[in-house]
Design goal:
mainly alpha, 31 helices, elongated
Length: about 775
């Protein structure tokens, strides 16, 4: 059944409409604006849910000449992601309505949060590559605003900039990857397109063209880097814990349930194009490495949100690894864990917010024994925390078990070093159990003597995580229902083949079951020794400071700041000669580089010029050389005038009387201006340094070469080009003139005005130079 365009379009655009209206809404309803946002998210959720069971493409034409449209593709994978985003969005807006009560700048906060929801829905449904990229970048912009919510806090601003630089850098890789696909679609599909749905439908032709052009691996790597930056994969994982300075609703919505999963979503969407040995080697390795690094760092975290942030990176690694395995179990693990992780991790972040709000701290060593004061919150934490640990029968266990199945099956099929896949998965899962139990210790551990009394939270703070915990419990009790309802369809969309997997408590021993038992047993048995384990990890971490991505990022920023300061001192030294040098050299360099990259061939000189024309040009050349050796200002100005008048005579001989008249008027005016101000020029110039003279000579040669090459390139071929023929046959008669130059100057005033503006700018700079030199000689 085909999707309905009005419903999909309304679901995507409604949050943007709410974002545009949010400042006005906040002016009238104040803090209740969060509940208005929840209503908009609920409508979007209903619209998305109405498309369940539908599949196909719908589009609104955007740039028809480039085959660009606002296209949407609806299938199980898009619906799963969109349902999670909009459904959890309802709960986040409701939670924020109470959590953010009385905070400043809430109009801006809810506006960014609403726009973010629309951006996520746009990514979920986008089938056009251009639209996908725009929505992808909008998520980064909204994230930047939300992470930097505390504008008076330098740490908040630093973290926002860090997230922006990393994710936008990944976005540039995505843009390059999308362009590669678009270029390959031309020969592969018989015509260039930006429609990803069409590319997926013809994936074999696309793969063959990418391979033949040598672009398969580069395109795959570009998508992997883009997804890794967005989804906090090693070595880009460092930005996610720093983003925890954002308010808790932001952390729960952006950095656990939605934005960080955008990279995983795009990997699932493009998986059919790239799946193969290279894909498995790259993504399975990166995913399992991130799963391990994130889990280890979560064990030594000192802040509950920091712990959850590193654990999010770890679970994202699990999803990436799942989609990396070519077996259908891998696709199922990635899709199922995307659902399970969104449910339990969003709830855990909201629980962390309740604890921080009511206990007044987020430090793990200052928390413990909160179950008596926060019993409902503790119950939510138990369900979701054990799900995070992968303890049966909670929902996180089922998707992790399917990942173990994928890793085991891949190792059995490939053998050799492929057995590292299940080994690393088990090793990472041991630390997953450790940090999950550590999180639960804030409710069931010993209460520190210095701990403050936690207050009973508001119902509006507890209800959203409770709903998520109930949803996680339902999936835990009936995992098959979740698989049949949406997950199998989502996994099928990432393989373009039917996937039908059933989940349940294992009843017999197998390799994957043994992996689960080993991870739970070792993790649970190691918990009493967690202090020693954390100390050992801390020692290793302190000894590898230079290898930490966050430290490398800080060093890179410091190096860029130092380099920019030094460059600024060289470029902006207060001398007009320096500014002119940089401007002209840059313009000439870019021009010549453009000619070189475009492989432009200059035209050879035409038939021999008349003797009179050659004589005029010879006089002009002599005058130009004479200007450089003129003994006085007056001689130099007069010699320069000779050069200008020779150019005017050249125009006359070349049948351009209008240009000649313009040249004569301008040259006469300039000559008069020079003679009027010549008395104000300094009588003596200081000795010119050799380095300055060499620089000026080199610049003059560069400008001359650029002008010479440009003239050769612009010179028409003896046989008129198509453009020239058009002007001669159409522009001149329709313009009512007899000279093509006159018609162009008259009918294309934009180009003429641009030239006039350049002349005015140069004249203004010349006058400014003269004014600056009235009372001193220029030494540089």
């Amino acid at each position: 059944m085909d999707p309905q365009l009005p419903a999909v379009l309304a679901a995507v655009l409604l949050p943007f409409v709410a974002a545009a209206a949010m400042p006005l809404i906040y002016r009238f309803v104040g803090d209740a604006a969060g509940y208005v946002g929840a209503g908009a998210a609920a409508i979007a959720f209903a619209l998305v849910a109405s498309q369940h069971g539908r599949q196909g493409s719908v589009a609104v034409s955007w740039v028809p000449s480039r085959d660009i449209s606002l296209g949407f593709y609806v299938d199980g994978w898009a619906l799963l992601f969109a349902l999670l985003a909009s459904g959890i969005g309802v709960l986040i807006f409701t939670y924020a309505g109470r959590y953010m009560h009385g905070k400043p700048n809430l109009g801006r906060f809810y506006m960014a949060l609403s726009a973010f929801l629309g951006s996520i829905l746009g990514v979920a449904f986008a089938s056009d590559l251009v639209a996908l990229f725009l929505f992808w970048e909008l998520t980064s912009v909204c994230s930047f605003v939300l992470i930097g919510y505390h504008t008076d806090d330098e740490t908040s601003l630093y973290s926002a900039r860090m997230a922006m630089l990393v994710t936008v850098g990944g976005g540039l890789c995505l843009l390059a990857g999308l362009l590669v696909l678009s270029v390959a679609s031309g020969p592969a599909l018989g015509g260039r397109t930006f429609n990803l749905a069409v590319m997926l439908a013809e994936r074999e032709a696309m793969r063959a063209e990418l391979t033949e052009a040598g672009l398969f691996v580069p395109a795959m790597v570009l998508f992997a880097v883009a997804a890794g930056a967005k989804s906090a994969q090693v070595p880009f994982h460092f930005w996610l814990p720093n983003a925890m300075v954002a308010p808790t609703p932001v952390s729960a919505f952006l950095h656990s349930a939605t934005m960080v999963k955008v990279g995983v979503y795009v990997l699932g969407r493009t998986r059919p194009l790239f799946i193969g040995e290279e894909w498995t080697l790259l993504l399975a390795a990166v995913g399992l490495l991130t799963m391990t690094v994130g889990a280890v760092l979560a064990v030594v975290a000192t802040d509950i949100k920091e712990l959850l942030a590193y654990s999010t990176a770890s679970h994202l690694g699990l999803m990436v690894a799942g989609f990396g395995f070519s077996t259908h179990y891998g696709a199922e693990a990635g899709a199922f864990h995307l659902l399970n992780h969104a449910l339990f991790k969003a709830a855990l972040f909201l629980v962390a917010g309740v604890v921080a709000h009511e206990a007044g701290t987020r430090r793990l060593d200052e928390l413990g024994g909160l179950r008596s004061e926060l019993p409902v919150t503790a119950a939510i934490a138990v369900v979701t925390g054990l799900s995070m640990a992968g303890v049966p029968p909670f929902n996180g266990f089922y998707s992790k078990e399917i990942l173990f199945e994928a890793a085991w099956e891949t190792a059995v099929a490939a053998g050799g070093l492929a057995w590292l896949y299940p080994a690393i998965a088990v090793f990472a899962s041991v630390f997953t159990v450790l940090y999950s139990l550590r999180f639960l210790s804030i409710f069931f551990g010993d209460r520190p003597e210095t701990a403050a009394v936690a207050h009973r939270p508001s119902v509006l703070l507890v209800a959203p995580p409770a709903v998520l915990a109930v949803a996680a419990a339902v999936v835990s009790v009936a995992p098959g229902t979740a698989l049949d309802f949406i997950v199998n369809d989502a996994a099928s969309a990432t393989t373009l083949e039917p996937v039908d997997i059933h989940a349940g408590i294992p009843t017999s021993l197998s390799g994957p079951v043994l992996m689960s038992v080993l991870a739970l047993a070792v993790g649970g048995g190691a918990y009493p020794f967690s202090e020693r384990i954390r100390a050992a990890i801390a020692r290793v971490e302190s000894g590898a400071t230079l290898l930490e991505p966050a430290a490398l990022y800080a060093d890179l920023l410091e190096g860029l700041d130092t380099a920019s300061s030094r460059l600024d001192a060289v470029v902006h030294n207060g001398l007009l000669r320096t500014y002119v040098t940089w401007a002209l050299a840059t313009a000439c360099g870019l021009t010549l580089f453009g000619y070189w990259t475009a492989a432009v061939q200059p035209s050879l000189p035409g038939p021999r010029a008349p003797a009179a024309l050659l004589l005029v040009l010879a006089v002009a050349v002599v005058a130009a050389l004479a200007v450089t050796i003129a003994p006085s200002h007056v001689a130099g100005v007069l010699t320069l005038g000779i050069l200008g008048f020779m150019v005017a005579v050249f125009y006359v001989l070349a049948s351009g009387p209008d240009l000649a008249l313009t040249q004569l008027v301008v040259e006469t005016l300039l000559l008069l201006v020079f003679l009027l101000v010549i008395e104000e020029l300094p009588a003596f110039y200081s000795e010119l340094r050799a380095s300055v003279a060499v620089r000026d000579i080199a610049l003059s040669v560069l400008v001359g070469v650029t002008a010479f090459v440009s003239v050769l390139i612009a010179s028409p071929d003896p046989a008129l080009t198509e453009t020239s023929r058009y002007y001669v046959d159409n522009a001149v008669p329709e313009g009512g003139g007899s000279n093509v130059v006159n018609v162009i100057l008259t009918d294309f005033r934009a180009f003429d005005t641009l030239g006039e503006s350049a002349v005015v700018l140069l004249a203004a700079l010349s006058v400014l130079v003269l004014l600056e030199m009235r009372d001193r000689g220029e030494t540089q």
